[in-house]
Amino acid sequence: MTWSEMQPLLEQACWDTLYMVGWSTLIAVVGGLPLGILLVLTDRGGLLQNVAANKVIGQIVNIARSLPFIILMVALMGFTRSITGTTIGVEAAIVPLAVGAIPFFARLVETAVREVDHGLVEAVQAMGGNTWTVVRKVLVPESLPSLISSTTTTIVALIGYSAMAGTVGAGGLGDIAIRYGYQRFETQLMWITVAILAVVISVIQFAGDYAARSLHRRGAHSGPAPRLRLLKAAS
Amino acid sequence: MITTSGLTKVYRARGREVTALDGVDLHVREGEVYGVIGQSGAGKSSLIRCVNLLERPTAGTVTVAGQDLTALAGRGPRAGRELRQARSRIGMVFQHFNLLSSRTVQDNVELPLEILGKSGKERSRKALELLDLVGLADKAKSYPAQLSGGQKQRVGIARALAGDPKVLLSDEATSALDPETTRSILALLRDLNRQLGLTVLLITHEMDVVKSVCDSAALMENGRIVESGTVSELLATPGSELAAALFPLDGEASGDDRTVVDVTFQGESATQPVISQLARTYNIDISILGAAIDTVGGLQVGRMRIELPGRYEDNVVPIGFLREQGLQIDVPGHESALVKESAK
């Protein structure tokens, strides 16, 4: 295969991967963040202590996390069809990716939020704040550096999952590597996809680490500069 | 201003019960600084956290500024709107400051005002005013991590005052600070108490804290208050452990034919030069073995251990003279005589 033949394939694959991972990350964050916080709040000694609810949510999260992604994808086909109207293609892959990532992210959120000093929660309660205030003003902002790291981890995991999404015809870099690189012995193309994936993952990891560190270090140096640096790192 | 009656807190963990508070009756008058002192595990922390119901008492009532908070609390573990409103009128400062690291100093002070739903302009005006009051006007844009411990606690105090509270609870506010910073924070609390008429309830394990700022004090042991009262009331109580700890005396008699007398000064008598009067009147030599005198609320209070020549029986007249001056006299080793005297 010549480069001019590979280029459009790779370009399309990159966009497909970014599209799938982008949307599923967004859904995972929107779904996993409240779920993770709920896991902390409903736990024994939590602000919304409800041991039964905590057990149920915890079990669902555990089961969803322990399923291999490829099985989850097949198992969810009916659900996927009811949402997207199809079980093949990029849109159809987003559904199982998001469903798989929500519990994954929720556990990471739980760990991050648990790290927040309980004294801060108490301080806000003593000011007359309710549970929602505690979540908004303390738990989320104080665990933000960890939450950003968790999001980075989730994105990287989703890039890995998205390679398997090729099996439902979703395209993407992993799909190219399998179909052309493995099945058609286009070793060169396979190594290019591997290189692209490695670069993409490195960039995401670096940007995530940088953002988390800038936030975490806030105050260790002077001035409000970290906020600006964060914007630059994200763009 | 703060009254607790029969306050009891029992923690249950894995079938075991621990009684942290065992029927505590506390009465803090408006405008005073009240110190609760005790060893760790005595229940001080549970007590102060029961006052704003961060901890739900198992039994008993808490009344702050005429409002029965225990009645507002309801049954559930969550704080209802009325209790939250009541809490917003009670300031609280913590041992470990509990400032949000993600917010600037000013934003930390604004937090209670955000909870109260104040407008942005009002919040920043109030926050800057309070930071000025605690002497940190130039640190408004800093983050807590950039401040020293004493500065952090000043921010904590400014934050506690944001809701214009009448009552300030201080949970070991100086325990994480060095002695000099402790003094400056205590001086600040004292100033606020005077300037704003703030009632302060503080808990501590340091006797110096009680000594330097408190009008009244209580000693806690095993979840009970074993002694309480104003500093001069405590001094006037024979055998008071708190008075003994606040004004420690030591010194042994230099010989068998000597009498050791502990003199407690409080109120008017402290202004009289009684020791030199005694020496001149009876023409005796008096040695001072030890003394602990302080100025509390403008009055000199304290104790002094003196030695008189001769046995106890020889000194009945000079001791009688001291008693006549309105001083409280204890003669160590002659407790029975003392009890007879105080029974009168």
Automatic annotation (TrEMBL), chain A:
Keywords, comma-separated and alphabetical: Cell membrane, Membrane, Transmembrane, Transmembrane helix, Transport
Q: How does it sit in the membrane?
A: Multi-pass membrane protein
- Domain of life here? Bacteria
Q: List, alphabetically, the InterPro entries matched.
A: AA_ABC_Transporter_Permease (IPR051322), MetI-like (IPR000515), MetI-like_sf (IPR035906)
Pfam families from the UniProt entry: BPD_transp_1
Membrane as a keyword of this entry, yes or no, is: yes
Similarity annotation: Belongs to the binding-protein-dependent transport system permease family.
Q: What is this protein called?
A: ABC transporter permease
State the organism named in the record. Answer: Streptomyces indiaensis
Q: What is the lineage of its organism?
A: Bacteria, Bacillati, Actinomycetota, Actinomycetes, Kitasatosporales
